[in-house]
């Protein structure tokens, strides 16, 4: 078995609210994400990256927003399920690199907590997860605080031939 890579991307509209879920962490701000689930764009992109790496489709196929049981659902469940499916197919996450696009608030106080949450959900060491944050330079939907977006790349390693350094 060979290593596999996956890419995921997501965007959610922002509305007036009392906090924004990103990477399983509630970011204190005057926005919330408009969504059927908890609207965690970063975890949705991560789920898609994991599913993509093993050729298992996408988050919309696995967790349709037409199903009532997915309403308000914590997106950590989506990530854990994607990791479980990858494990069944003989793969585990090696490392994860992520970008969050959000004009405000600044995410630097949250990045370490987000890394730890993602590492926990994926069962890997914190130093195998990297999170970067970018503003929209006040341009476009992100820059005008109308949207939050995220991009994630994940490397999956065969379980029996893993990189010991990134194994927990
Ligand atoms: Mg989404």
Structure keywords:
binds magnesium ion; 168 residues; alpha+beta; two-stranded antiparallel sheet; single chain; 5-stranded mixed sheet; 30% strand; 27% helix; disordered C terminus
Explain this structure.
It is built from five helices and seven strands, in the order E-E-E-E-H-H-H-E-H-E-H-E. The strands form two sheets. It has a five-stranded mixed β-sheet. With 168 residues, it is of the alpha+beta class. Strand 2 (20-22) and strand 3 form a beta hairpin. The longest helix is centred in the N-terminal third of the chain and has 13 residues, at 41-53. Helix content is 27%, strand content 30%. Residues 10, 12, 35, 41, 44 line the site of magnesium ion.
Give the gist of this structure.
Helix content is 27%, strand content 30%. It is built from 5 helices and 7 strands, in the order ββββαααβαβαβ.
SSE order: EEEEHHHEHEHE
**Backbone structural class:** alpha+beta
Given as residue ranges, the uncertain stretches (5+ residues, pLDDT < 50) are 162-168
How much is the radius of gyration in Å? Answer: 15 Å
Strand order of the largest sheet: 4-1-7-5-6
Strand segment count: 7
Tell me the distance between the termini. 21 Å
Please state the overall shape, judged from the principal axes of the Cα atoms.
globular
Percent of residues in beta strands: 25-35%
Rounded mean pLDDT is 93
Number of helices: 5
Ligands, ions, cofactors: magnesium ion
Classify the helix fraction into a percent range: 25-40%
**Main β-sheet, in a few words?**
5 strands, mixed
């Amino acid at each position: 078995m060979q290593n596999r890579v996956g890419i995921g991307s997501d965007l959610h509209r922002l509305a007036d609210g009392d906090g924004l879920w990103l990477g399983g962490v509630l970011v204190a701000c005057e926005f919330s994400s408009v969504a059927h689930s908890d609207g965690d764009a970063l975890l949705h992109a991560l789920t898609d990256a994991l599913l993509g790496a093993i050729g298992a489709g996408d988050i919309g196929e696995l967790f349709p927003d037409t199903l009532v049981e997915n309403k308000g659902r914590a997106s950590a469940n989506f990530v854990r399920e994607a990791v479980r499916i990858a494990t069944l197919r003989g793969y585990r996450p090696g490392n994860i690199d992520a970008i969050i696009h959000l004009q405000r608030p600044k995410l630097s106080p949250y990045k370490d907590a987000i890394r730890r949450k993602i590492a926990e959900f994926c069962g890997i060491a914190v130093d195998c997860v990297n999170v970067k944050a970018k503003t929209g330079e006040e341009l476009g939907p992100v820059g005008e605080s109308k949207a939050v977006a995220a991009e994630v790349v994940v490397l999956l390693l065969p379980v029996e031939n893993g990189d010991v350094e990134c194994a927990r």
